[in-house]
From TrEMBL:
One of its GO terms (molecular function) is serine-type endopeptidase activity. PROSITE patterns: SUBTILASE, SUBTILASE_ASP. This is Subtilisin-like protease SBT1.7. Residues 1-21 form the signal peptide. Pfam families: Inhibitor_I9, PA, Peptidase_S8. Residues 348-424 form the PA domain. Keywords: Glycoprotein, Hydrolase, Protease, Secreted, Serine protease, Signal. Residues 148-548 form the Peptidase S8/S53 domain. SUPFAM superfamilies: PA domain, Subtilisin-like. Belongs to the peptidase S8 family. Residues 45-125 form the Inhibitor I9 domain. The lineage of its organism: Eukaryota, Viridiplantae, Streptophyta, Embryophyta, Tracheophyta. GO terms for biological process: proteolysis. It comes from the Eukaryota. It comes from Ananas comosus var. bracteatus (red pineapple).
Length: 698
């Protein structure tokens, strides 16, 4: 947690890109924010939900704020600071304020109070991908959707570097700077930039998935994000009229009434806004998926068929293939001694971290470094270089397996798979004087053949808060993605950090994957403006691919067939999503019935729905009965279960209701916790509409 005396200045900015050369600053609000430790602090930040008074919808912003302030104590917060931080209009009915636990308890007796919860911290999830998705400038779908023209994509992240050429042919006119949002923004809606590359690799034209879409960027995060700020960003995005939201941060799955992202995006969905969120980077651990509400698209990360090849040749002649975006042409491919700090018993996470090389002679050597720990592989390379090392081999562990990353390292390097790391360590044990050489082959396309595959870090289901709905929903490109970057990368840096220079970086995470899907959603919205957010999601999911480019089932990080808990419906196919045949639609009332079916109290449902809800008067449904494009059931031995779905035939304005029957026998006994998978397919001469089915035996 952060120092309770440290003040944060949050600049909440809505940047609306009206054309590739015009930038208009539509909303700026400078707020001093104090973040307190959640344990032992006298006052903390609370998000407070209240009922709408009868005339609230008619009140001006100042009158609404006065109403909200009536719930607050008359005294100032600690240090004389104002209590009210945010007065929300659209995202929730309520506000964020500095309060003590006792003050919140006293507030609970006030007329109109619904509930309050502490502010929560959310973590950031942090060229060739359009082509990998079969999107080319002369492709019919990209042309017919006019590259997303007329659609506004809202990006909630750390801000934007508006001078970057990806956002304008002539350059933006703004002084906003930050470190990460250019990466997510360009994947969704960056314009065409010829000659883009990362340190000379991945050369080509860089573009977002909807390069003519308008862009609104909301700075709601710094190194982390807080729920009150996130709600303020969503509140403003709704007011600005965005069509699509891209959210690339999250937190461990929690009940939706305690999740600001879930609450805010419920409001966005009710306003007709499509929301693409990242599934989190805590995979491959089971149940690690984040952003798991059914009204958002939860996106996992996949690989693409591109390798930035660096080759390690061991002293015994054995060759190992790795990846690195930094490939200096003047580095000699000669045998050099190897140093392995892990041989001293240092834990995997601490190898090549600060202080770990003390007493280890790495000067003039190639150093073996493990993944994991507080330092990224690029940071570990910097530590190795400072200690005198001339090269680095980054070794995946048993969780990362076959997901190496081509990072913009600061010294010659190769990132290798876990299987190759095992070979390296075996060589180190038998070689009296182990040596290695690193050489570079540049960017290779069409490799590996097993692409797309699920990235090791991609969040996995089942959802802890929502296990009746399959999450993640879908996967998209999220490994070694070329993205706009606000400062130089690699061994030599640009000391001025001139944002007008077309700097790009190689990034991996479910963050760029979610941005890809936000761009595709913008294309679909432009092509089908009458589709609801749920219809767009259904179109993506029921048309998703389940096979890789070799015709085999999509694999996981271990090159085994991936489960639906990793892939969801499969890998996005934009062209097929443009003409899905039929869709499974959902509306606000369906989500309310679903929330009541989760067993939430009236106050909890009201805080999510932003309107008074009495579940006793709602026809509550079980999660599996939500009209979702995938099906999840839990069933025991000798049991029967029926799940109903309603499909809408596109172009004919017809709907069809059908039941799916599940029956088990004695053979299920003893298989508690086991998962079976299948699929339901509706097939015509033109369409194949597929729904993934996941069955858990109880």
């Amino acid at each position: 947690m952060e120092n309770p005396n440290h003040k944060h200045l949050l600049l909440l900015t809505s940047l609306l890109l009206l054309s590739h050369s015009d930038l208009i600053l539509t909303h700026t609000q400078l707020l001093p924010i104090v973040r307190c430790s959640g344990h032992g602090a006298d006052r903390d930040v609370y998000i407070v939900h209240v009922k709408h008074p009868n005339t609230t919808h008619l009140l001006a912003a100042a009158d609404r704020e006065t109403y909200y302030k009536s719930f607050l104590p008359p005294t100032a917060a600690a240090g004389g600071e104002q209590r009210l931080m945010y007065s929300y209009t659209h995202a929730i009915s309520g506000f964020a304020a500095r309060l003590s636990e006792a003050e919140v308890e006293a507030m609970a007796s006030r007329e109109g109070f619904v509930r309050a919860h502490r502010d929560k911290e959310y973590q950031l999830h942090t060229t060739h991908s359009p082509g990998f998705l079969d999107l080319h400038p002369d492709h019919c779908f990209w042309k017919e959707s006019n590259f997303g023209a007329g659609v506004i994509i809202g990006v909630l992240d750390t801000g934007v570097a508006p001078f970057h050429p990806s956002f304008s042919d002539a350059g933006w006119r703004s002084r906003r700077r930050n470190g990460r949002a250019p990466a997510t923004s360009i994947r969704a809606a960056g314009g065409f930039v010829n000659g883009a590359s990362v340190l000379g690799q991945e050369k080509g034209s860089a573009a977002g998935l909807a390069p003519r879409a308008q862009l609104a960027v909301y700075k709601v995060c710094d190194k982390a994000c807080f729920g009150s700020d996130v709600l303020a960003g969503i509140d403003q995005a709704i007011a600005d009229g965005v069509d699509v939201l891209s959210i690339s941060f999250g937190a461990r799955s929690a009940p939706f009434y305690d999740d600001a992202v879930a609450i805010g995006t419920m409001a966005a969905a009710a306003w007709g806004i499509f929301v693409s969120t990242s599934a989190g980077n805590e995979g491959p651990r089971e149940g690690s998926v984040e952003n798991d509400a059914p009204w958002v698209l939860t996106v996992g990360a996949s690989t693409i068929d591109r390798t930035v090849r660096s080759t390690v040749k061991l002293g015994n002649g054995q060759q190992i293939y790795g990846e690195s975006a930094y490939q200096p042409g003047n580095f000699p491919a000669t045998q050099l001694p190897i140093a392995y700090p892990g041989a001293r018993g240092i834990s995997r996470a601490k190898t090549c971290s600060d202080g770990s090389l003390d007493g280890v002679n790495v000067r003039g050597k190639i150093v073996l470094c493990e993944t994991g720990g507080a330092n990224t592989s690029v940071e570990k390379g910097a530590i190795v270089r400072r200690a005198g090392g001339v090269g680095m081999i980054v070794m995946n562990g048993p969780t990362e397996m076959y997901t190496p990353e081509a990072r913009a390292h600061v010294l010659p390097a190769a990132h290798v798979s876990y299987a190759d790391a095992v070979k390296l360590k075996a060589y180190m044990k038998i070689a009296p004087t182990p040596t290695a050489a690193i050489s570079f082959a540049g960017t290779l396309y069409g490799t590996p053949q097993a692409a797309p595959a699920v990235a090791a870090f991609s969040g996995r289901g089942p959802s802890a808060a929502n296990n009746g709905v399959l999450k993640p929903d879908i996967i998209g490109p999220g490994v070694n993605i070329v993205a706009a970057w606000p400062k130089s990368v690699g061994a030599s840096s640009n000391p001025t950090n001139d944002e007008s220079i077309a700097t790009f970086n190689m990034i991996s995470g479910t963050s760029p994957a979610a941005a890809h899907l936000a761009g595709i959603a913008a294309l679909l919205k432009a092509s089908h403006p009458d589709w609801s957010p749920a219809a767009i999601k259904s179109a993506m999911m029921t048309s998703a691919d389940t096979l890789d480019r070799s015709g085999n089932l999509i694999s996981d990080e271990g090159l085994q067939a991936a489960q639906y808990l990793a892939t969801g419906a499969g890998h996005v196919n934009p062209t097929k999503a443009d003409d899905p045949g039929l869709v499974y639609d959902l509306w606000f009332s369906d989500y309310v019935a679903y929330l009541c079916g989760l067993g939430y109290t009236d106050r909890q449902v009201t805080s999510i729905a932003r309107t008074g809800v009495e579940c006793a008067s709602v026809a509550a449904i079980a999660a599996e009965e939500l009209n979702y494009p995938t099906i999840v059931v839990a069933i025991g031995a000798n049991a029967q279960k029926t799940v109903t779905r309603t499909a809408r035939v596109l172009g004919a304005n017809e709907t069809a209701v059908f039941d799916v029957y599940f029956t088990t026998g004695d053979d299920v006994e003893g298989r508690t916790g086991a998962v079976a998978e299948g699929q339901l397919r509706w097939v015509s001469n033109k369409h194949t509409v597929r729904s993934s089915i996941s069955i858990t035996f109880i």
